[in-house]
Amino acid sequence: MAVEVKIGVHNATRELVLESSDTPKDIESTVRSAMSDPNGLLDLTDERGRRLLVRTEHLTYVEIGEPVERRVGFGTV
């Protein structure tokens, strides 16, 4: 299952988007922990193992989607 996470950053025209294999609760906990430190760094890892690091002072929002199971194939609807 994958959870889509969208992150808004100050002075950036586009949001950062990643898909995580973590649960929404784990992602929220990571964000809250990073935000509690005035010099915090949000550190998230996507499904492919790539890390995304953003200084918390530059965050405008973090949107955490619901877990979605991937469907592959021509017969899926």
Overall description:
This is ATP-binding protein. InterPro entries: DUF3107 (IPR021456). Pfam families: DUF3107. It comes from Jiangella alkaliphila. By secondary structure, the chain is of the alpha+beta class. The chain has a single domain (3-64), classed as SH3 type barrels (Roll). The protein is built from one helix and five strands. It has a three-stranded antiparallel beta sheet, covered by helices on one side. A two-stranded antiparallel sheet has the order 3-4. It is globular, with a radius of gyration of 14 Å. The mean pLDDT is 90.
Order of strands, main sheet, comes to 2-1-5
Q: N- to C-terminal separation?
A: 17 Å
Give the % helix.
Answer: 10-25%
**Uncertain parts:** none
Largest sheet: 3 strands, antiparallel
Mean pLDDT: 90
What fraction strand? 35-45%
Radius of gyration, in Å, reads 14 Å
Pfam family, one: DUF3107
Protein name: ATP-binding protein
Organism: Jiangella alkaliphila
Protein traits:
16% helix; alpha+beta; SH3 type barrels
Note the topology.
Blueprint: E1 3-9, E2 16-20, H1 24-35, E3 41-45, E4 51-55, E5 59-64
Antiparallel strand pairs: 1-2, 1-5, 3-4
Short structural summary:
The protein is an alpha+beta fold and 77 residues long. It has one domain (3-64): SH3 type barrels. It is built from 1 helix and 5 strands; from the N terminus they run ββαβββ.
